[in-house]
Design a protein that fits this description.
This protein is an alpha+beta fold. The protein has 6 helices and 5 strands. The protein folds into 2 domains: 7-61, Thrombin, subunit H (Beta Barrel); 65-166, CarD-like, C-terminal domain (Methane Monooxygenase Hydroxylase, Chain G, domain 1, Up-down Bundle), CATH 1.20.58. 50% of the residues lie in helices and 20% in strands. A hairpin with a 3-residue loop joins strand 1 (7-10) and strand 2.
């Protein structure tokens, strides 16, 4: 069970801190909820019932600094292949984003980054669905890495580049 103050990643929604655990009256009944506050946007909260295994299974602890390094190096050393079929690619990207597997999310960023560079060199651009998937994946990685490393989200791409250079 998580406790107040813990930092977690919630599904594909981003990084949160548990600001409270309390009983709340929703939908005609009183239940205990985790109250999640986004780390980089304190204007909203997410309520997750503590006894709902389907929803609590989407809560993952943030990575350690060592694990961040491992994810960067592992993703850099793996092949990232483009999926030509739009529907198959959309399904894969959706599954990757909700999986919580940071290495797979990094690989997704890698393949979309490479595809975007290739298309831009031809005067073209990513499909809207691919651009949105790329934005979501980058946001997840950037925000978690920034939190864990104690740096600004804007500094994460440079940090990743330096780790790749050294490895």
């Amino acid at each position: 069970m998580y406790k107040v103050g813990d930092a977690i990643v919630y599904s594909s929604k981003g990084i949160f801190t548990i600001s409270d655990v309390k009983k709340v009256f929703f939908s005609g009944k009183r239940e205990e909820y985790y109250i999640l506050t986004p780390v980089f946007d304190n204007n909203s909260s997410v309520y997750v019932p503590t006894k709902n295994e389907n929803l609590t299974s989407k809560m993952k602890p943030v990575l350690t600094k060592d694990k961040v390094m491992e994810v960067i190096i592992e993703a850099e050393n793996k092949e990232a292949n483009w999926i030509d079929d739009n529907d198959e690619r959309n399904e894969e990207f959706s599954e990757v984003l909700t999986s919580g597997d940071r290495t797979r999310i990094m690989l997704m960023c890698k393949v979309l980054h490479n595809r975007k560079k290739e298309l831009v060199s031809k005067g073209k651009h990513l499909r809207i669905a691919d651009e949105q998937a790329y934005k979501n994946a980058k946001s997840l990685i950037t925000n978690e890495f920034a939190y864990v490393l104690g740096i600004l989200p804007d500094d994460v791409p440079e940090y990743i580049s330096k780790v790749i250079e050294v490895s």
